[in-house]
Amino acid sequence: MTIEAMACELCERDGGGLIWRGGDCRVIRVDEPGYPGYCRVIWNAHVREMTDLAAPERARFMHVVFTLEAALRELLRPEKINLASLGNVTPHLHWHVIPRFRDDPHFPNPIWGAPMRQPDPQAHAPGDLAAALSERLSRL
Ligand SMILES: [Zn+2]
User: Fold this and answer.
1) Ligand 1: distance of its center to the CA of 24 in Å?
2) Residue 121's pLDDT is what?
3) Confidence (pLDDT) at 1
4) Which pLDDT belongs to residue 94?
5) Where is pLDDT greater, at 120 or 92?
6) What CATH number is associated with residue 35?
7) How far is the CA of 67 from the centre of ligand 1 (A)?
8) Overall pTM surpassing 0.85 (yes/no)
9) Number of domains making up the chain
10) Phi and psi dihedrals of 82, rounded to 5?
11) Which helix (H) or strand (E) holds 61?
12) Phi and psi angles of residue 41, each rounded to the nearest 5 degrees, phi first
């Protein structure tokens, strides 16, 4: 393990509520008010950039991202899905998969921008979304 990985929160912990874990990556749910279905797909090993992965690993990672995106579209019918890979604070490969709604706190801005409205905890509130996502991801 590198020095960087020893201090990395995504190496030490799941990084959120675990929805699904595979041999190479995992899906966690982000607890962010106003954003039902906000998930991250996290590569299990400490890797900085997509181009540090071999081509088949990259394809596998994106397959998981797109499977999750499809499940969230089916379950929540969002206005849009935002995909983002930043990692400036935590340089451990992960993709943000964020269902967006016209009445979410930042729409149409990025969720990291200035808020446009207060979150509505009832908006788009799914039943047991974690269980529904877990069931769909079990097909991976
Ligand atoms: Zn790490």
Assistant:
1) 13
2) 82
3) 63
4) 98
5) 92
6) 3.30.428.10
7) 23
8) yes
9) 1
10) -105, 130
11) helix 55-76
12) -105, 120
Q: In angstroms, rounded to a whole number, what is the distance separating the alpha carbons of residues 22 and 26? A: 6
Centre of ligand 1 from the C-alpha of residue 83, in Å: 20
Q: Provide the residue range defining the domain that includes 11.
A: 3-137
**Beta strand ranges found along 46-119 (DSSP E):** 80-84, 94-100
The Å distance, Cα 116 to ligand 1 centre, comes to 33
What distance in angstroms lies between residue 63's CA and the mean position of ligand 1's atoms? 21
Q: How far apart are CA 46 and CA 41, in angstroms?
A: 13
At 28-38, the pLDDT tens digits run 999 999 999 99
For residue 53, the CA-to-ligand 1 centroid distance in Å is 14
What string of DSSP letters covers 36-55?
A: TT-EEEEESS----GGGS-H
Helix (H, G, I), strand (E, B) or coil at 5: helix
